[in-house]
Write a structure and sequence with these properties.
It is a single chain. By secondary structure, the protein is an alpha+beta fold. The protein contains one helix and two strands; from the N terminus they run H-E-E. The protein has a two-stranded antiparallel ribbon with strand order 1-2.
Amino acid sequence: MDEDVLNLEIRKFLKRVGITSQREIEKAVQHGLSSGALQGAERVQATVLLRLPALGIEFPIDGEIALQ
């Protein structure tokens, strides 16, 4: 195993996850605001599930996103 390659690949994956997640959260919040499901001052619970099936890993990451 080449640790430098592994590190680079993990960083590329996490960058993709971060960018994609941010877009999806922004779209969901905008939809929630326009539909009236959100007022704009809430704190929204969020969970990301990291799975590595080949390694038997399933790890939830919980958090909260403040809208204001």
